[in-house]
Amino acid sequence: MSGIGIFLVFLLMTLPLSVHAAPSSYIREEVTANYFANGTMDGSVSTIGYIEVDVENQADVLQMLRLELSNTTGTNLQSNMSYKNVAASPYTSDRTRIYVNTTADSQSIVYNITDPNIAAIIQLRLDYQNSLGGTEIYSGGTNTFTFNLSNDQLWPLGTYKVEIYLNGTLARTLEFSVQ
Questions:
Q1: Cβ burial 124-144 (10 Å sphere, 16+ → b, else e)
Q2: Dihedral of alpha carbons 103, 111, 23, 159, sign
Q3: Which of 32, 34, 55, 137 would staple 46 via disulfide (CB 3.0–4.6 Å)?
Q4: Closest by CA position to 119, among listed 28, 29, 43
């Protein structure tokens, strides 16, 4: 019997393992502010974050995933450990949100950014006109929208995304980066 056991161990040790790609982890933080038509902010600001992982292929599934965060200052995170029992990416670029321990819940997928200096609020100004030079927005002609993003502080380095909604539906996404 011991010869069979040694053979099985040797066989298991020599079988090739197939790993398609290493997982990638992300910290995604969002600042959302609502504005009135005159450009002033209506006062409601949401500053939240997520910890996400991307398996980068459709074949692998991660189990007992643990990610250690280097810093939790300025958030409501109670622990620097984030976790998930199973993570997969059924479609290309799918990300799985990882549980974090916050002051609100020990198994939350979202945390709050409590320090306003971490996530700056970006002021937005929108100027628009239709093809006749007026300000009515209509579907029968050409409407031109010009907007400027400004920040009272230096822009943190990174990639930014602007989502443009028309009648509550995402019309276009624009990305830019600060290097």
A1: eeeeeeeeeeeeeeeeeeebe
A2: negative
A3: 32
A4: 29
Any idea where the domains of the chain sit in the sequence?
Answer: 24-112, 123-178
What is the token pair recorded at 12? 């298991």
Spatial CB neighbours of 100, under 8 Å, sequence gap ≥ 6: 51, 77, 79, 82, 108, 109, 110, 111
Q: How many helices (H) and strands (E) does the chain have?
A: 1, 10
User: Which amino acid would we find at residue 171?
Assistant: A
Per-residue pLDDT, 59: 72
pTM for the whole thing?
0.60
Pairing assessment for the beta strands 41-54 and 111-112 based on DSSP bridges = antiparallel
Which two structure tokens, joined as six digits, stand for 141?
A: 């002609």
**Whole-number Cα distances in Å, 122 to 67, 83, 97, 150:** 30, 31, 25, 6
Tens of pLDDT, residue by residue over 117-160, are 777 666 666 666 666 777 777 666 676 766 666 666 777 778 88
Centre a 10 Å sphere on the Cβ of residue 81 and count the other Cβ atoms it contains: 15
